[in-house]
Amino acid sequence: MDLTALSKKRNYIVIGLVALFTVLALWVRLIPMAGLTASGEVNLLGNDAWYNFRQVELLVANGLAYAWFDPMTLYPTGDTIHWGPLFTTIAAVFTILTGASTPPEMAVAASMIPAFMGAAMVPLVYLIGRRLADWKSGLFAAAFMAFVGGAYFYRSIFGFLDHHIAETLFATIFALAYIVAISKGREQSVDLRSVETLKRPAILGAVAGVAYLLGLFVMPTMILFALIVAIYTLFQFIFDAWQGRESADLLVINTVLFAVATVGLLIFGLKHEGFGFARYSLGHVLSYLLIIAGTWALYLLARVTKERPKYIYPLSLLGISVFGLIGMMIVAPDIYAIFVSNFLGFFGQSAQILTVMEAAPWSFEKAWYAFGYGLVLMAGGLAVLGYGAVAKRRPEHLFVLVWSALLLISTWRHLRYEYYLAVNVALLAGLCAGTVFDWGWKGLATSRTRVQPQKEETNTGKGKKKNTPKKSEKKASGPDPMQILGMIITGILSIAFIFTSAQANIGFSESMGLYGGMNHPDDQQWQEALFWMNEHTPDPGVDYYQIYEKEGFQYPPESYGVMSWWDYGHFITTIAHRIPNANPFQHGVVGPNGVAAFFVTGDEDEAVRIMEADGTKYIMTDYKMDNTAVFDAMATWDDPVNKSAPYKPYFLFQDPGNPGTFQTAQMYGPAYFESMTSKLHNFDGSMVEPSQVLYVEYAEAGASGYSMPVITNAGMMNATEAEAKVGAFNANAKSGMKAAIYGTGSRVDLPPEKVPALHHFRLVFESSGSILSALYPGTPDIKNVKVFEYVQGARIKGEGTIEVDLVTNTGRAFTYRQESVNGEFVVPYSTTGTSYDVKATGPYRIVGTGTTVDVPENAVMQGLVVGA
């Protein structure tokens, strides 16, 4: 093989390989496309993707004007949008260029943008890898970027129409621009008095500033990279001062960069009040100006201490920082509080936030599942960066080291940053692999070189020349075993990283095509209910495609809200074209009128108060809200201290198959069955008497020697028998021992105590599927998704128990029963005149009296008195 000729064509080979990796990255991300588009309906992955699609619809319908306020979510106030417009504008422009006009066509076009952006990351990471090392590291990084998995891959596939991949793309573009700026800026000496020497760092800083603005216009959390720059700048000034070097180039770069960012943001406009970093607020401007001021302070302090001992500069910084923070706390406590609260917002954790999947903390298991062998290579890349930053004094290596370290910390605190970290994993893994192979290959090349002794002609003085050997040169040694071993191990790790990631990604893409989005049985049930809501409930009077200004906006009289858990808010907006009371921005969730308080309360009067305060007409429930961790999340949002303990307490019990060890069990207490969620979803608002219950004897927490109570005896039995046993046991129980009655998660239809009927809520629709009856044989036919209407309730005079038989839209029959209160019944179901497909099969009956009463629809809606 002619290596010289091959070397001349290296650039073409590298370009070809990067193009190949890019095509492969795009291909694996488009695999779900066929499955997600098969139904002909809009089909997207994740919750937020649905709201991004709504934004695309608004942009296309309004000449690419962006809506910063949306009255189609968070009734009765509407919501201010905190996302930036860049991602959805790109998707909308592409949608227009493709000629897509119907919602399904627009969804297909827009859904391709995440895949395109994911593919674009491949050449981008190659450029960074080449800048940090050489083309070999760049190629490895590009190959790894094409296949790196975890949350990053999910957020860059077809159908995941969310801004996450755009955040990653434009943040990485900024990182490349800043790396070029700080490396190129040091190539010539900078004199602040010489305009000529200022040009290069100023231009580089301006380019980095524009790149930063692009990331900022995707999402305000781009400020995280301003923090990365600030930390890097601090370390770089300390290193430079230690080496006796002025950092005028970095001073100019940072000043211009954040001046451009500040001016650009002010031109763009401060869209939100306050100082929050997660909003387009004055907090960003203040932060950028502080970074500029901080860079100048670092520079001036370095000049002042230049002739002093080296340790004076870092010690001076430490002292100034400590006294500066104390001074800020005293002199400007409001500003200090702003930065502390924003810092906690980025890196802090609360019981409520931990219920959100992407805000949960990372773990080693999650890390390995996402990146696998790439983490091993990443560790090697960190070592390479550390060596380059310290021994070779390369500023770009220090910057990437800080960038990677901060993202590792951020991801460890909040899982959502994993899709940012994927870039660093691929990049550092590539840097490690490229460095090892470069080191090993050069060693092999040297070992193959053999210097042969040469003869030298000398004149003997007799007209003859004599060949005399030159001084013998030492032959090169053989291959270094460590170099060979290093290449082998790195090669195996690299292949394993790519192979396992590619295999997982292909499998994941295929599964998303089959079961992702509305192809999943659960979401199909939601789609069924939302289509029904769109067609069979009153129009709320707000134009879905119109952009409204927040100032002066008032809802029309016919408007109303739809109550559901926040997970489903964007579904309600985008599919049903109705207005949710809460949304996946986690707005409308907490507080006395929040949806969390509504769904866990056991007091119907309190539930009615919340309905009136929120202007709610319909409630949507599903089996997850009723009988999975979603209920626990609702309880935690309502009460972050006690969480779900009042409703579903945990117990320990001995493992029958492994004596001496314990397992946990979650009991379902009376408070759970009396919650609005259970009353609605399990019992359709009807009164229910206890029948079979779970009798439990246990040692209380502490008395058992454990942090949870320990079950000593348990069994299902008749409610009357169980009540008698509880009374008898507790009357003679030893200290720390107790007995109680509970229900179980497998039979949510069997409450431990009587559950009173609801007077103001009626079932109007239910989906066709029933996962609970499939999971737990013997459970009644409780449908996956249900829709209820809030009504005044008709009033009937009488005593005792009243009941009416009903048939739902799916053909399921049930009986609504209610006990009188103060000589009156307040009933939510009409027997005549309803427009819904949940209908009574006859009149109400007052049990044991022979009295029957017909209830017209208007009586239920207006709270009229009917009957005798």
UniProtKB/TrEMBL annotation:
| Superkingdom of the source species | Archaea
Q: What reaction does this enzyme carry out catalytically?
A: an archaeal dolichyl phosphooligosaccharide + [protein]-L-asparagine = an archaeal dolichyl phosphate + a glycoprotein with the oligosaccharide chain attached by N-beta-D-glycosyl linkage to a protein L-asparagine
Entry EC no(s): 2.4.99.21
Top enzyme class of this protein? Answer: transferase
Pathway membership of this protein? Answer: Protein modification; protein glycosylation
Record membrane topology: Multi-pass membrane protein
Single GO MF annotation: oligosaccharyl transferase activity
Domain Oligosaccharyl transferase STT3 N-terminal spans what residues? Answer: 41-304
Q: GO CC terms on record?
A: plasma membrane
AglB-like core domain segment(s):
523-625
Record keyword Amino-acid biosynthesis present: no
- A Pfam family recorded for this sequence: AglB_core-like
Give me the segments passing through the membrane.
12-31, 81-100, 106-127, 139-158, 164-181, 202-235, 250-270, 282-299, 311-331, 370-390, 397-415, 421-441, 484-502
Where in the cell does this protein reside? Cell membrane
- Domain (Archaeal glycosylation protein B peripheral) ranges: 793-866
Per the annotation, which location comes first and is thus the protein's main one? membrane
Q: Which UniProt keywords apply?
A: Glycosyltransferase, Magnesium, Manganese, Membrane, Metal-binding, Transferase, Transmembrane, Transmembrane helix
Family stated for the protein in its record:
Belongs to the STT3 family.
Instruction: Please report the name of this protein according to its UniProt entry.
Output: dolichyl-phosphooligosaccharide-protein glycotransferase
Q: What is the lineage of its organism?
A: Archaea, Methanobacteriati, Methanobacteriota, Stenosarchaea group, Methanomicrobia
